[in-house]
Structures are given as C-alpha cells and as structure tokens.
Amino acid sequence: MRDYPIEIPEIMTALRLDLIKVPPVIRYCSGIRIFGRRIKSIVYTTDIAIIRNIDADAAIAVYPFSPHPTITKSITEAADIPVFCGVGGGTTQGKRSVQMSIFAEAQGAIGVVVNSPTPKETINDIYKTVDIPIVATVTSVYSNVAEKIEAGAKILNVSGGRDTVEVVRSIRKEFPKFPIIATGGPTDESIIETIQAGANAITYTPPSNGELFSRKMDVYREKERQQSLENE
C-alpha cells in the first residue's frame, strides 16, 4: 500500500498547449485491452491534424464513402495512436471489404470497423482472413447482435444516437462480458450514463477544424484589441 499521494507527472511544450483533451470522465470506464494496450477513449475523426493533436487512446476512422486504401494509408501512417479503420459494410461489401481489411491490417490498423448493414457472410470472411479484431457497428435495439458475434465480430460499436444508452444496456443484459464501444454524447452526464449502462470504451467527437480555428481567431482578435487599447 502506498503511503504517498499518486500524482501524474505531465510533460508539455509551448507548441503543444492547444492539445485537444477528451472529457476526463471517460477514464471511469474499464477500457478494452487489445494486444496488450488498454483503450478507453477513442476519437471519432478522419482529420489527421486532430488525430495528431488529441490525447485520446485511439482513433476510429470511418466515413460516409466507400473505403479507399489511400485514405487508410494516410491516416495510419500519420497517426501516433492506434487506429480502427472502416472497411465498409453498407455499399461496400463482400470481397472488397475483405481486401480493405487485409490492407488495413498491413498498414498497422489495430482493428477494422464494419457498418451496421454488413452481412454476416462478409463479417465471417473478414474474420477468417485477418488477425485483428472486427468491430461491428450496432445502430439500434433491433440489430441482430448475436448474428454479428457468431460471424466473428470481437467488439461492438454502438452508435444509436439518442438511444445509445438503451442499446448498450440491452446488449449488456444479453452479453454480460462482450466488449462494447459506444458514443458518449455531448456532456459528462451522458458519458457517465453510457458507461454505467455497460460501455467499456467511449468514442468522442472532437470540435471541427473550423470551430477550433474560430476560437483561436477570437483569441487573436481580443489580443489585438487589448494591444490597441494599451497604445492609445
């Protein structure tokens, strides 16, 4: 037993003071240990600049277009944290998703993400082909979760909008120990509720580049205004 307070030393430089920080309450979740690495917070973005400047444990790179090797390569090469890469499942299925999974694994992805409509056959083909976990997206309580798990999914990614907590709770009731990633929502309260419902890790949507630049411009304008007043 330690008889001294536990403090976390922090190293920071002037050029990294704008680092985006995920909500601290995410640390209350258990996390998911993948290949020895414990992951609790996952930033939801494909923006390389944000991935390089956030303190999340990992990134989930999915987007509303057919997945392309160039995008996967760019993100995994630039990221300094583990990346879960989207490999389709909606418009893109079958052999194309399997090929994208092979490429994602070769580029160093820690896992591949399939969309909610992905057929069980595609999930199973990916499972038989790559040696990284398949993350299957679940969007509602009507999703056939058991089918996804039986096909080879190793993690569930719950993205149920306002119903996310209900979906997580429903899955946790049926599968008490299965790994669940879930969107935490915009507030500390919603994140805590999602964790209490059974989520092991939380995805966080950061401010956009436009929002961050707008805030910085406001700071610059205020600084110029203050300097002008001092010079009067």
Concise structural overview:
This protein has a single domain, classed as Alpha-Beta Barrel (TIM Barrel). It is built from 8 helices and 10 strands.
Provide a descriptive summary of the structure in words.
- The protein is of the alpha/beta class and 232 residues long.
- It has a single domain, classed as Aldolase class I (TIM Barrel).
- The strands form two sheets. Strands 3-4-5-6-7-8-9-10 form an eight-stranded parallel barrel, surrounded by six helices. A two-stranded antiparallel ribbon has the order 1-2.
- α7 links the parallel β9 and β10.
- α3 runs parallel beside α4.
- The radius of gyration is 20 Å and the shape is globular.
Order of helices and strands: EEEHEHEHEHEHEHEHEH
| Top-tier CATH class | Alpha Beta
Give the integer mean of the pLDDT values.
93
Helix proportion? 25-40%
Protein name: Hydrolase
InterPro entries: Aldolase_TIM
Keywords: Hydrolase
GO molecular function, one term: hydrolase activity
Which features does this protein show?
232 residues; alpha/beta; TIM Barrel; two-stranded antiparallel ribbon; 8 helices; 10 strands; 38% helix
Topology of helices and strands:
Blueprint lengths: L31 E3 L2 E3 L1 E4 L3 H4 L6 E4 L7 H10 L4 E4 L7 H13 L4 E4 L5 H10 L4 E5 L6 H7 L3 E4 L5 H11 L5 E4 L4 H10 L3 E4 L4 H23 L1
Parallel strand pairs: 3-4, 3-10, 4-5, 5-6, 6-7, 7-8, 8-9, 9-10
Antiparallel strand pairs: 1-2
Protein name: Hydrolase
Keywords: Hydrolase
GO molecular function: hydrolase activity
